[in-house]
Amino acid sequence: MELIWFEDYLALAETLNFSRAAQLRHVTQPAFSRRIRALEGWIGADLFARTTHGVTLTPAGEHFRHQAEVLTRALHQLRRDTLEVSGRGVRPLSIAATHALSFTFFPKWVRGNERVLALGNLSLISDSMQACEQMMLRGDAQFLLCHHHKDASSRIESGQFKSIVVGVDTLVPLSAPTGNGVARWWLHGGEPVKYLAYSAQSGLGRIVAAQWGAKDRAFALETVFTSHLAATLLSMARAGDGVAWLPRMLAEEDISAGLLVEAGSPELEIPIEIRLFRPVASQSKAVEAIWSAFERG
User: Domains of the chain, with CATH numbers?
Assistant: First the structure.
């Protein structure tokens, strides 16, 4: 058994697509398929059901997933800790943060926490929510900073991680205004409104879908553009291309300047938290020191 087999399995369990998972693992699809077969041979059971309609996890595959995540992260953590003890593996402590928070919330938040800055050697990794989750599950980052809503799905809300609330924000449906200052696109019953949507990799997209993805909502949306970057959707909304649910923290300058206006009633706003996640298991002294500083801050 090889550790890369576990990592391959987790990539395929996440994507349920052999070609996409092979790309993520930087290997050809035939080689990737052979490694998945080798893992299944070692276990003695099929982990994936392969059909003409796609790939799904078998019951054995579902059972295997949780512990595979735990073991993979623990083995990587063991190697890093051992290298640090040997004096050969000291590296910056990493916070994985979604793009929107990396540019808006993170700089002021860290600068305002003197205890964290005093500890030093802290590295920010900015990416989509999906990529940040994968980093946390692999143990490539010690912390995750992200938007959070209780109704939205997440891969890091199991018993493997704990979190604290470090800020709050609101997702607001916004549109460019017309000449008289009202929203060019307004969410109401009738004709579908042009919608600037988040992609599947986006945590904000999951939150919007959890709140307003139901078919029985009082307004109709026609998706005309998709991106996992809130900043891109903001630019498109400012240009008048449709409505986007954007973090108020990101859009506040455009709102104040009158470049964006609310595109619906206040009931369509979505209150969200900004949370910092870390593994439940005991971490290195440096990680525990920074976590304590964040808790006190």
Answer: 3-86 (1.10.10.10), 93-165+273-296 (3.40.190.10), 169-272 (3.40.190.10)
